[in-house]
Amino acid sequence: MTTALVRISVAASVFLCAVPLALATLMVPLSIPQLATESDLIVHGKVISITTTLDADRRIVTRVLTEITETWKGQHPCSRLQVVLAGGTLGAKQVVVDGQPEYRPGEEVVLFLKLNQRKEAVTVGLAQGKFVVWTNPATGQKEVHNQFHGRAVTGARKTDGQNSQETTGEPSLSLAELKRMVVRNPN
Predict the structure, then answer these.
(1) DSSP readout, 33-77?
(2) For the chain, how many structural domains are there in total?
(3) What tens digit of pLDDT does each residue of 34-75 get?
(4) What are the φ/ψ torsions at residue 110 (nearest 5 degrees)?
(5) In this structure, is residue 15 part of a structural domain?
(6) Is residue 87 part of a domain?
(7) Structural domain includes residue 5
(8) What are the tens digits of pLDDT across the range 96-130?
(9) CATH number for the domain that contains residue 108
(10) pTM of this prediction?
């Protein structure tokens, strides 16, 4: 009897652990040249605001308004650009799309964008099309990262009484180097 309960418990645990894996998004990493080639527009800027609305087809979408500092590929007639993401929270309703990038007002970003049929900007490769820009306090240099490229800041720590930034073990990728890679592969 005890052996049967253990087997059922183990089977239930394995099943419950597998459910999140079955729901996860499989994302094939894109190289920076691939991101650049797939993009209609690549911009460096700052997130101004984030709003969630219903689109023309009554689907929940999130709109991210970005102030453009510099355009690296393509043309955009204004100094501001709206990026559209599927999903979001609107009142009591929430739609979650796995793999979509998350944005924060005030965040400095580099965006690899494709224009959809409605001529709305959407990120290439879901979250892969968004790079966060941060300043490395040790060097003063601006670095970038997304989930597959660059070194991310993971938190602050104290070392020998000094504040410093803790980062992932990935190699650093400077904002200038990312720009060189994109301009070198302008397809």
Answers:
(1) HHHHHH-SEEEEEEEEEEEEEE-TTS-EEEEEEEEEEEEEES--S
(2) 1
(3) 999 999 999 999 999 999 999 989 999 999 999 999 999 999
(4) -120, 125
(5) no
(6) yes
(7) no
(8) 999 999 999 999 999 999 999 989 999 999 999 99
(9) 2.40.50
(10) 0.78
